[in-house]
Amino acid sequence: MKPLRLVPLSDDQVALVRSFVFHEDSSVLALNKPPGLSSQGGRGQVVTLDEMLWAFARPGKARPRLIHRLDRDTSGVILAARTQPAASFLGKAMMARKIAKTYLALVTPGAPDPASGRIEAPLRRVETGREARMLVCEPDHADAESAETRYRTLCSNDSAALLEVFPRTGRMHQIRVHLASIQRAIAGDAWYGGALAVGGLPAPRLMLHASALTFPHPEGGQMTLRAPLPDDFAHLLAQLGLAPADGASGVEHVR
User: Per the confidence metrics, is the pTM higher than 0.90?
Assistant: First the structure.
């Protein structure tokens, strides 16, 4: 790993990032990222999650590195490699699409039609000043990137639906743009047309949660990490009568 500029952390910041950890071994570190924290490169934010990983640096060794990232307002599972061999191994697994991600998304209005399906719509990046977003485009567009998202409806009512979403590719804002393309934008997602209120209740932020991550572990076997819903998401679902069946959180490692 390239040497990185040391970012000094306060005792409170160290305690905070350590509170996110729900699995740690010699190769990987798994955190349950809260909404509102940038994974990397956050503007106007003194310290990002990536920089907070200095809290886990070992004397004379590199600090952990994030293997992937989540949007600032997306909560849930995020994985970091503790060593260069682990980072290389997981990077190759990501490129080979051997890392499976599962998300929960609250969308409006009601369940999509069909209730379960696959979205295959190429995306292109558009930059305006310092802002960047993704748009659905034609496959033959010069900037087109292939993208595939699968989804299924877990529960719904007339005003909203809770979807389980499985991105097969990892384009920026992919889930957000794909769901908006089938007229089921994620609640709280002002960038892509998401409703700011659901059933008369305010959406506190982008209602998207990375609930599970399955990957080949650098030391052998396959690991699945599951992160519980944060309080704001769980509270809104309960108010809407859309609370999903309880899912087990934690870690499963099959060798």
Answer: yes
